[in-house]
Amino acid sequence: METNWYTSPEEAAGGPSCCASDVYRLGVLLFELYYPCSSPEEKNQTMSSVKHRVFPPQFHLKWQKEAFFSMRLLHPDPASRPKIDEVLQSELLNELREKLDEREAAIDLEEEIVEQEMLLDFLVTLQQRKQEAAGYLQRDISFMSSDIQQVTKLQASVRRKGDSNSMNISKNDDFASSTSRKRIRRTSKENQENSRLMKNFKKLESAYFSTRNRAVWDVTQGQAAMEMREHQRRAWSVDFSADPKLLASGGDDGSGASIGTIKTKANVCCVQFPCESSNFLAFGSADHRVYYHDLRNLSMPLYTLVGHKRTVSYIKFIDSKTLVSSSTDNTLKLWDLSDTASQVLDRPIQSFSGHVNVKNFVGLSVLGGYIATGSETNEVFIYHKAFPMPAMSYKFTTTDPISGNEVDDNEQFISSVCWRPQSSTLVAANSMGNIKVLEMV
């Protein structure tokens, strides 16, 4: 049926096909392009009328220039139809060609703009990363310059102490010979130390900067997933909130949390989010206090807990409103935040004593009502929140290399304790690197 639509009158009469027949078919095609039909029936009826050059009224109203041109192409007399050259140079096709050229130019311009924007974004991002890297480098250099100054002062102090304690030495040849041999041995030792230093340089560099930065590790890959370098000095503590994407950190520069910074006058030794909350944060400070903040308003703490006499080294939440703090004043203190109208709390609901802690970080862990802490007597102490004295203790011992017997070593201290969740098992470690798994029975 479609073949009949495109058949010219001269071909329908049995005459040969010619260039004028192609012009006729072009007229049919032009009409189809500008007047689509909604159904096969409408299409069949409309195209039957087109063969007699009868167009729908809507086509004349909407596409006047196109309708007139199609009428010329569909003229029943082949000689009256435009020639191919006339068709190609017609006003209608020239307008379409110009519109197509404009569209292609617009597309090319749009693609060029997109490419320029992508290039600009790339250059800006590259500049930001390089500036960030330069900032990190400048910060690292500042860290090292400060540390070099401190080490230089310490070295000068040690040398002055050595000079003041030095004895008068004789200048005989034997002593000079002896001194020469010592210098030779010392030089050889220094060379060995330098060789050892360079061999482990990367590890030492990593260890040095790790004391100043925070890193999040992917344990499945065994590598750092990201590194945060906001602290200007050593970072002591980090803690994840109930939101796994939010963590807080505290350091010697007295600040924490990169999406918001809480500035303090003293070193921050520990940070802790309450159970099942990411809106509140508590931290212990070298000014002997514990601060409790609402992270939605960092201007001032909600509560300040006052009671310790020395640095607060650890804090742990027993529940969302009850926390225990540990200090180098030999005490633990239990605080209740649920029933207070004052911003300053100076009366803990319980104080725990019995362990020894005056200079080291000995660890703190809570499980329900039980509180575990270390002691500088190389012992683990366990308290219950209802009683101020220890409920039980366990002393680490050392094996004597000669007798093979277990002996006490009070020069060591417990450095870390951790309860296994929802169990009575406790892991503890001391300053010698000994780790013990303990069961509370």
Automatic annotation (TrEMBL):
Keywords: Repeat, WD repeat. InterPro entries: Kinase-like_dom_sf, Prot_kinase_dom, SPA1/2/3/4, WD40/YVTN_repeat-like_dom_sf, WD40_repeat_CS, WD40_repeat_dom_sf, WD40_rpt. Residues 159-194 are annotated as: Disordered. Transmembrane segments: none annotated. Coiled coil: none annotated. GO terms for molecular function: ATP binding; protein kinase activity. PANTHER family: PROTEIN KINASE DOMAIN-CONTAINING PROTEIN, PROTEIN SPA1-RELATED 2. GO terms for biological process: photomorphogenesis. SMART domains: WD40. WD repeats lie at residues 305-345. This is Protein kinase domain-containing protein. Residues 1-93 form the Protein kinase domain. PROSITE patterns: PROTEIN_KINASE_DOM, WD_REPEATS_1, WD_REPEATS_2, WD_REPEATS_REGION. The keyword Repeat applies. The lineage of its organism: Eukaryota, Viridiplantae, Streptophyta, Embryophyta, Tracheophyta.
